[in-house]
Write a structure and sequence with these properties.
alpha+beta, 11-stranded mixed sheet, 7-stranded mixed sheet, 26 helices, elongated
Amino acid sequence: MTRLWLQLELRRRWRSLAVLGLLVALAAGMVLASVAGARRGAATVDRLLARTLPATVAALPNDPDFDWDLVRALPEVAAVGEIAVAPFFVEELPDYYGYLPPRGPETYRTIEKPVVLEGRLPDPARADEVAVTALSPLDVGDRITLRLMTPGEAEAPDFDGDPHGPVIPARVVGVARGPWYGDKLSGQGEVLVSPALFGDHPANFIGTHKTYGIVNALVRLKRGDADLASFQAGLAKVTGRSDIELMNLEDDAAHARKVVRFESGALLAFALAVLVAALVLVGQSVSRYVAAGLGDLQALRASGLTPRQALALAVAAPTLVSVAGTLLGAAGAAAASPWMPVGMAALYEPSPGFDLDWPVLLAGCAAVPLLVLAGALASGWFARRAGRDDAPVRRSAVALAAARAGLPLPLLVGARFALEPGHGNGRVPVRPALLGSVVGVLGVLAAFTFSAGVSDAAGHPERFGMTHRIMAYLGEGGTEFGQAGPVLAALAKDPDVTHVMETYVGVLNSPRTSVTVYSRPEGTDFPAVLDRGRLPERPDEVALAVTSAKELGVDVGGTVTLSGVTLKVTGVGFVIAGSHNNYDDGGWLTREGFRRSFGDTSKYHLAVVSVRPGTDLQQFTGRFRESIGALPGAGKIVAEPGQPPEESTEVRNLLVLPALLGTFLIALAAGAVGHALATAVRRRRHELAVLRALGMTRAQTRVVVVTQATLLAMIGLAFGVPLGLALGRTLWRIVADQTPLFYQPPDALPALLLIGPAALLGVNLLAVWPGRQAARVNVGHVLRTE
């Protein structure tokens, strides 16, 4: 009996079953691909670190004659890789210059050993071999030309980036990836040169007299971060210096872990959103299918078919189709694995390419058909219970209002089809279709609202506190490069400048963390971005960046002790991103407050400049050099465009998820609504035949289906638009808090203007085929068989 019933179902309802199978495949494929990608991405940083002998710290003595053998001899040190603080250039990449080339053969071998994705690493004895990272436009076998500086250019602090030194033909021998020599989200790939390049041309990197060029080093400690304190003490002891700065590269790894876990969380949230939407939208298709099947099977009850047997027959087809759809979706998820993981995780993946996450695929192949079976059984139980209920069907208030208003009969019938389940064998559940319509609109609008927030943050650096576009270095370590007053005046005179602020930079310490602080002159109108509170106005006040406030455990109104000074926290927000702090790490002091903590010394003396939108920053810096060219010490003063924080690129990578979710929901909602319309026409063909026998025309029959579709869309818009807007903004606020960035309510006006016409147009297009089928109902045949 089951085989005969399935054969009959496949012949007469193959379109509905095909749509159902494709919906299941689409949903299962996206959920499985997202979960597998999230699992893969969350572990990328640790998997890469486990294979690359990563450096623990970067030691910065800034001394070209520093004796690195003293460092190698320390008991905590496993390896040292010296690096030249100098650039090299690639003719084939006009906008690129390499930086920090390795000095000795330890790099790439015993420390920072990259994973080779293709080819091999450059020979440490050959200066004419290089490797590249995955984002580079170069590939294995490409011939390139390396250009170096002259010794004089290497010693010039104001070198303009146009080298005139040796020209070295080279060949790309491999593609590699590592935590230090790796890609950045906002970068265009890196070129990894051989240590022999520095060995053959040392003067072209650090000069002959070594007045400016320096060599620092990457250091790998035996126990990693656990050896850092003892290494620092030992370094100070053997060198006699306590001022050697150590950059803890574990902090970079921790940040990378945080980002990839956030990306993995976003993928899991995407998978959950897809699953919930699929449960509603696919579930309503399954519910309608089972209800229709039970109605058709009522005729066999007289032949001895039991209710349980009828339910088993009704759920057989959608369950088997769900198995096929799940297998197709699992195959799609496997095929999508080369595109996973996404975002920053892709730049840390040590084994990119095809990957099968068998636990996820097998669990999904078992769970999805079981979910469909459970939903089908529940729908069948409710349908049987409704069929046994002798109480009159509750009429829709909308349909009754339409009748009282004297609306044309096709509109009234269409409203009843959309909102009333009907009677007897023609009974069709309407609530799943209404819920599906609401969820479809809600999900699409939430996705586009969230996408608007992502686009806004990616295109506005000020969301990350970056209200300046130019940073000019006026001094360093208490040494002034020139006279600050004339330089500031020259900047203020430029017609493209809107604000100029002079600031000093220092570092205050607490037992929990270090805080890089910036002075803000009293009375300045330079824009600073705060999440809450206000900027400091007194010497004993401080405004903290959001991450620093979190690490210190304080908020607006609290107090914090930094370097022995107790300060009241007046605000929490964002600061200037510098060489030793990020935009969310640091604080603001008044000028007098800065003097109380540091006296007349500072780590850096800066001028930060805001310019008009659309200003060409390269032309601006050129004009600046000309305007201060005659000033004393002008050659040492460097102005450079500020780069948007890496987090803006990380946020931009989220754009693909709401776009995919919106597209998926549109496809899923279209399939679900189309299935609902087709099922209603088939199940209520007797009502349509009676109306046609009483004089309803073919055109009026089409209007019935169009009215049903339009009403479904309007109800979906009425409830889905406000809920979707609220959900999208709530999700974006959560992301803004986690990133962190300044929350700006997303402008979803374009989506709000388009979603109504798009929804109405879409459902009316979906109504074309069911309307055509309704108009072609064979009146005599239907009335005889019914």
